[in-house]
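User: I'm putting together notes for a lab meeting next week and I want to include a structural view of one of the chains we've been expressing. I don't have a solved structure, so I'd like a prediction I can at least talk through. The sequence is below, exactly as it appears in our construct file.
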Amino acid sequence: MKKLSLYWKLVIVIAILTAALNLIAISAAFCDAYTDTLYSVISDVGGRITDFFPFILGELLMYLSAFALVAAVILALLLIPLHKKERFKKATVHFLKGLLMYVVIILFIYTVNWSIPFRGRLLGGGYETTVDCDAVHLRALREYLILKLNEEAKLVPRNDAGTVIWPDNETVREEISISMHRLSYRYPRLSGYYPKLKAAWCSEVLDYMFIAGYTYPYTMELTWNRYIDRFDYPSLFAHEASHHQGYYKENEANYLSFLACTTSEDPTLRYSGYYDAYYYVNKAYASYVNNLDEETKNSYESIKLSDTVLRDKAESLAAAQAEFDERAGAFDFLKSAAEQTADVGWETQGEVLGSNSYDGVVPLLLEHFKGTLYEQ
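Assistant: Thanks for the context. Below is the predicted structure for the 376-residue chain, given as structure tokens.
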């Protein structure tokens, strides 16, 4: 019997190790222990290394991977059977073997950098939601967020025209890092390194798909859609930074983003954090009051966002749209396909994540204000 080559031994060992880790990851306790120890080292080191690259290494690898897979299909189905030169066939076989090794390694990295942390307990364990998600509690929380937004609108810096002066990206990074490190007494993973948030090359496509940002678990890079409005940028950075620290569930990342932004000493970050929370709470609240008669509904909504808040958000959205109109256009031909893909993707993600989806931040927020806005 012919002995296995070193190449095949490595492929088999990595594949078995990946399968074994996914099997062990059935234990949420193991996932938490791993994320608190080994993953924290990987995220810190990986984030520091990829910060040296001025471009998004993960996005480049994604494009190269797609090209390599297409090339592999063409070579395997068409060129190898038809090509007569032995040298070409050998070179093609080496390419396919290299691609197989790449796929096996990627699956391993995906397991240790995303799959295991994601399968841990909510916020690392020890967190339960006991407040009913009903109209009474949602109304109290919604009114609180509206009052805070109206208050922060008076505190944010403005130019002579009254437009909010939003901090630059590096200032947001520094302020969010400070806030998250302050929160690490309760959530120890937040004590790690916070890499830059890099603008995606495919921002136009992301905009068509309603994607504001994402984290590459393969390269530990944080990316954003350059066409989101400045109002959302601080809360987005905090959200993606939470993923980087091992909180990969969308609800927990939204919750930690809220805490980081609203405890910041920078009023613009607090403004962003309160608005992001208001978006989700107002969405949940609407589902409870839409069936009420108008008189009752109006009494529930007597506290409203100020004209200043509404104008700030409108101006921020208009500025983002103006930038999109000025810079976009190269990927217009992908718009329809991107939108259709997004529809399927968002629906599938909602079904897979369930209570851990973006909207799942509402129960966490309700629990957070237990004893402050209501007793139970």
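A couple of points you could mention at the meeting. The chain is about 65% helix and 5% strand. The first strand starts at residue 197 and ends at 199.

User: Perfect, that's what I needed.
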